[in-house]
Specification:
145 residues, alpha+beta, Transferase(Phosphotransferase), domain 1, 6-stranded antiparallel beta sheet, 33% helix, ATP binding
Length: 145
């Protein structure tokens, strides 16, 4: 569920053509992109203010290494990254669909059975993330799909 690119947004990051905005936070912006072969990806691009911070770049490189170790059915796999680029970025598999926040906002509370399935999937995904021992920075309801 991407919103349109804005004036000033890049047309491409690395080999990925950007087609919309998926979200953003304190660290940067996440775009919907397409690989050269046409595969959809989510491209996380670091904000310019942080990209110039040497310590931040080191932490971002650590985050990318940790994210590459995460596996599991309920996580988006890292497919590419360039922590030395200006600005640094990471591309993950794109998982289509509304965020949990939007789904509940649009349709109201989920049925109990759906909550149970979602809870089990989130627990399995978080277990895979914690097993990789990443550095947690941002975790939002909007990220749940």
């Amino acid at each position: 569920m991407a919103s349109p690119l804005l004036d000033g947004d890049p047309a491409a990051i690395g080999p990925y053509r950007l087609h919309g905005r998926l979200g953003g936070g304190g660290m940067g912006q996440v775009y919907l992109g397409l690989s050269p072969g046409g595969r959809p990806v989510a491209v996380k691009v670091v904000r310019a203010a942080l990209a110039g911070d040497a310590e931040f770049r080191i932490r971002f490189a650590q985050e990318v290494r940790a994210a590459r170790r995460v596996g599991g059915f309920y996580t988006a796999q890292v497919v590419d990254a360039d922590t030395e680029a200006g600005p640094p970025w990471m591309a993950t598999a794109y998982i289509p669909g509304p965020s949990l926040h939007r789904a509940v906002g649009d349709h109201g509370p989920l049925p109990l059975e759906s909550v149970a399935v979602l809870g089990a999937g989130l627990a399995e995904g978080l277990g895979a993330v914690h097993a990789a021992r990443p550095i947690h920075r941002e975790a939002y309801l909007e990220q749940a799909r």
